[in-house]
Amino acid sequence: MASSSIFDILATQSALVEEASEALPFQFTQCTYALGPIRQAVYLCTTCAVPRGICSACSVACHTDHEQIELFPKRNFRCDCPTRGLSHSCTLHTVLEVENAENTYGQNFKGLFCRCSRTYDAQTERETMIQCVACEDWFHESCLNLRDRPSSRDPTPQPAAEAIQEVDDDAASDASSSGLPPPLISGTSYDALVCRDCVKGIPTLKRYAGTPGALMVIRDSASDPWRVVGEEVLAETLRDVEVTDGDAHAATAGTKRPRSGSLDEVVQAKRPKEDTVQSETTKTSSLCLAPAPNDIVRDIVSSLDDSVHSPRGAGDVFLTEGWRERWCRCSQCLPSLESHPYLLEAEETHEPPEDPDSGLSLEELGMRALQRLPRDRAIDGIRAFNEMRDELMNHLRPFAQEGKEVTEADIRGFFEAKMAATK
Ligand SMILES: [Zn+2]
Ligand SMILES: [Zn+2]
Ligand SMILES: [Zn+2]
Ligand SMILES: [Zn+2]
Ligand SMILES: [Zn+2]
Ligand SMILES: [Zn+2]
């Protein structure tokens, strides 16, 4: 490889800037506290070591050099960074606020996940973890009986950084655990998980568990292998749609992108026009259209209320694409759905505003930052920028002299060493 010219270095640099702006396309200048309780990505600061959650802007701006765990979206959550709940002061929302009495702090805020209450380590976790759409905790595939527990949680050859996935997200639904055989239900064949404890508290889910489109993992006895019930959704749903066309059973259009040839499209074609659908959904009927479950499922569901769980299944429900549209909305089924609005309508998750500077080159960003500074500090800034550029060039000069290729890692190494030195 020929020696790196300044052009190569600039090309590498612009690739790095591009990479950085893709990773952080958002502006982290505003704490979400003022927005009140919303569904948003929440971070746990393990350095601050209190079971409180902070918004993504505060995680970047206020707890920059602290150890953090991303807890992913939590609903009805208000940032704790500017409150008395956290002793570390917020740099974005500088008014000290009272503690958020309405936030709920489950075990995730102690760094524990799943019904097995384990800690999560992205480096060693081999299993995909799946978020319950109701309680928003995360579950191991093995704890959901989707696979045997992997013999070891040691690091695998592939990085397991993708191991935590939200099923709600289309892009992430292609679940695969590193180095493990596929799970009993693949991530692409369902859209949402409702964990056992949540199913237990929602009568309509108990009614639907194990019926078409509400998959359950069951077995005939403790010595039999696990199998899946509720997969026969296509035929069943189409029949339902034909029977109840234009009736109270029809629902609002899905918010998910339909996959080609998927159930969504077929159902879409059979559905009455949007405007009639809207008015029909609010109407309740006394005729219940919820399908009847089989005996094993009935056994599992009735055991949910006991302290001893059925050996025939845990009671978790995996809802397939289009699930929000399939509920019976009779006077019996609707109330328990209405008290959990996310079961009827997809929720919005707050995202920080996009960064208008993202995608600009390092020079452009530097110039913009300098323009915003008072003049004397701007001059200091230029001096610091020039010094850093000179240092980087000194760092890279030996590569050019020896004809060695400059890699991203070399440039990263420079910045990392620089960061470490300023700490
Ligand atoms: Zn915040
Ligand atoms: Zn912190
Ligand atoms: Zn903050
Ligand atoms: Zn678990
Ligand atoms: Zn749950
Ligand atoms: Zn019903």
From TrEMBL:
Note the zinc finger regions (UBR-type) by start and end residue: 29-95
PANTHER family according to UniProt: E3 UBIQUITIN-PROTEIN LIGASE UBR7, E3 UBIQUITIN-PROTEIN LIGASE UBR7-RELATED
Annotated region (Disordered) at 245-285
Chain intervals with Basic and acidic residues compositional bias: 267-276
Under the heading Gene3D superfamilies, the entry gives: Zinc/RING finger domain, C3HC4 (zinc finger)
Domain UBR-type intervals: 29-95
Zinc: present as a keyword of the record?
yes
InterPro entries to which the protein is assigned, alphabetical: UBR7 (IPR040204), UBR7-like_UBR-box (IPR047506), Znf_FYVE_PHD (IPR011011), Znf_PHD (IPR001965), Znf_PHD-finger (IPR019787), Znf_RING/FYVE/PHD (IPR013083), Znf_UBR (IPR003126)
**UniProt keyword annotations, A-Z:** Metal-binding, Zinc, Zinc-finger
Q: Which organism is it from?
A: Cristinia sonorae
Put simply, this protein is called: UBR-type domain-containing protein
Q: Which SMART domains match?
A: PHD, ZnF_UBR1
Q: Which GO terms describe its molecular function?
A: ubiquitin protein ligase activity; zinc ion binding
Q: What CDD domains does the database record attribute to this sequence?
A: UBR-box_UBR7 (cd19677)
Record's GO cellular component, any one? Answer: cytoplasm
Lineage, top-rank taxon, reads Eukaryota
